[in-house]
Amino acid sequence: MSGRAREIEQGLASVRSRIARAAERAGRAPEQLTLVAVSKTWPHEDIRLAYEAGQRDFGENYAQELAAKREALSDLTELRWHFIGALQSNKARLVVPGCVLVHAVDRASVAQALSRRAVAAGVVAQVLVEVNVSGEGSKAGVTPRDADVLANAIAGYDGLSLAGLMCVPAADQPDEVTRAAFRRLRELRDRLAVDHPSLTRLSMGMSHDFELAIEEGATHVRVGSAIFGARAAR
Ligand SMILES: *Cc1c(COP(=O)(O)O)cnc(C)c1O
After folding, report:
1. What is the Cα–Cα distance from 103 to 139, expressed in whole angstroms?
2. CA of 223 to the centre of ligand 1 (A)
């Protein structure tokens, strides 16, 4: 086994055992949690090594990078792609069909573009609404107040299923602040689910905070550097 294969296998094993321990603390079954391995910037060879180590869900942030990797790895028939980045409407065709979940829809125009693509392809695209739970002007996502409006819009578009919510809280905050942000997303999900019962998933938690997210109800954690190592700056 190559050094890189061993590194990735160990990264995955360590993240999986941390997920299991956090789930146990929270009294949750680890099967309720999906680990999305965030492979952005890493070559498709690394994704193949992770797949060989048993990983099946992978997340990418850039539509073109996703499309190129999907082509290079088309022989891995059990691989599931997640699109976790900010999507431009004109790139909708690169993620639908072909992704099991689009994590970060924060505008009606993007939802509409995804809807058109899904209808044309004869599929139903599962989408999450990205919510800005930290309230900083610079962060992506709708405000918790506007989440309601976007959720209603998505529910009205053909070809889309409103599957849940996603967030990226402000970085470098004390644990209690991050935990409170995750909790706000869960509470918002619970409120919106009254009108939208399909809204069940919570995509939250990255390498530095996925254990907190699991304790607060995450169904999908998006973990990159804890598996693949530190990314070079782009
Ligand atoms: C890059 C990225 C991740 C993974 O970040 P790590 O800190 O490497 O785990 C998760 N979610 C989103 C939206 C990202 O852009």
Report:
1. 15
2. 6
- pTM for the structure as a whole: 0.97
CB 129 within 8 A of CB 146: no
Residue nearest to atom 10 of ligand 1 (CA): 222
- Which residue among 19, 62, 84 has the greatest number of ligand 1 atoms within 8 angstroms of its CB, and so is best to mutate? 84
For 126, phi then psi, to 5°, come to -85, 125
Neighbouring C-beta atoms of residue 84, cutoff 10 Å: 28
Decide: 10 and 48 in contact? Cβ < 8 Å.
no
Task: Give tens-digit pLDDT for 78-125.
Answer: 999 999 999 999 999 999 999 999 999 999 999 999 999 999 999 999
Tell whether ligand 1 has an atom less than 6 A from the beta carbon of residue 61: yes
Q: Centre a 10 Å sphere on the Cβ of residue 56 and count the other Cβ atoms it contains.
A: 15
**Ligand 1 atom nearest 225 alpha carbon:** 8
